[in-house]
Amino acid sequence: MLQQELKKLWYPPFILPAVISIVIFCTLGECYENSDGGSCTVLDVITGRDALLLHSMDWLHIWESGLNTWSYLFIPVLLSMSYIITLSEEGKSGNLRLILIRSGALRYGWVKVISGAVTGGGILVMGYGLYGILMLGIFPLRLTDASGVQMSAGGLVSCVVMRLLGIFLYGAMVNLFALFVSVFFRDPYMLLCLPVMMKYIYTQVLQKIETGAMEQGNMLLLEQAGRFRLENMIRMSFDKSWWLLVTAMLALYGLLGFGYGFWIRERRDSGAW
């Protein structure tokens, strides 16, 4: 059943718009600060026709600059598009009761949750990876990390693989918002808007806590709040903050899998479906 669900979610007309959109948003990342104090995006550098500036930029820096405010804002929508479309069509088809009888409510819930996590992480890896490949044809590749330290070819490959793994985990984590909303709603507009709102509220609450901690000089609270930033998952630092997020993600997916299945079973038994 999981294979069939993934096949539905990875239908190219559902996936390609999200992947292309991620590439476009990645080009809006700030990668350079000019002499006037203004920032330039990757797109500005590409379209600026400044050959000297273009060749002075490093591919790895450009690639890492891809995730930015715009991409973080719209990623919840882009990652959940195929899931939402599939869920909406499944509800309209009237076959849901038959599917639940054949597979069971708990199994259905777990399959939905696991496939949603894999799809969310996979789409983000595809979009971000494609952005990196495209930038590789424009910007020079140098064997240095973000601090300018020389790396071996193996070190560069390891850096890229680890970042893609972090990107996958981040995509799976962000898609939790859409999966949670899908438990209670079937309306496509609610499924599109609510995950973005939830992610935005989550980010704003953390920022408020951090701002208050800085004003009060409470460094301990500032550090603790910073550990809950979802973007920390991308760094693959394997420190306490990273393990905290991974543990929280696995726990939330476990709760969501059981909760989804039990809620659907109650809806089915009550005659709602």
Write the layout of secondary structure elements.
Layout: H1 2-9, H2 12-26, E1 30-33, E2 39-41, H3 42-47, H4 51-56, H5 59-64, H6 69-93, H7 96-103, H8 105-136, H9 153-184, H10 188-216, H11 219-226, H12 240-269
Antiparallel strand pairs: 1-2
What can you see in these coordinates?
- By secondary structure, the protein is mainly α.
- The chain is 75% helix and 3% strand.
- It has twelve helices and two strands, in the order H-H-E-E-H-H-H-H-H-H-H-H-H-H.
- It has helices at residues 2-9, 12-26, 42-47, 51-56, 59-64, 69-93, 96-103, 105-136, 153-184, 188-216, 219-226, 240-269; strands at residues 30-33, 39-41.
- A two-stranded antiparallel ribbon has the order 1-2.
- The radius of gyration is 21 Å and the shape is globular.
- The model is unreliable at 269-273 (pLDDT under 50).
Number of continuous helical runs: 12
Largest sheet: 2 strands, antiparallel
Number of strands: 2
Q: Structural class, from helix and strand content?
A: mainly alpha
Determine Rg (CA atoms, Å): 21 Å
Span of the ends, CA to CA: 20 Å
Q: Which term fits the overall shape?
A: globular
Low-confidence stretches: 269-273
Share in helix: over 70%
- The pLDDT mean sits at 82
Which percent range describes the beta-strand content?
A: under 5%
Order of helices and strands: HHEEHHHHHHHHHH
Q: What's the quaternary structure here?
A: single chain
Sequence of strands across the biggest β-sheet: 1-2
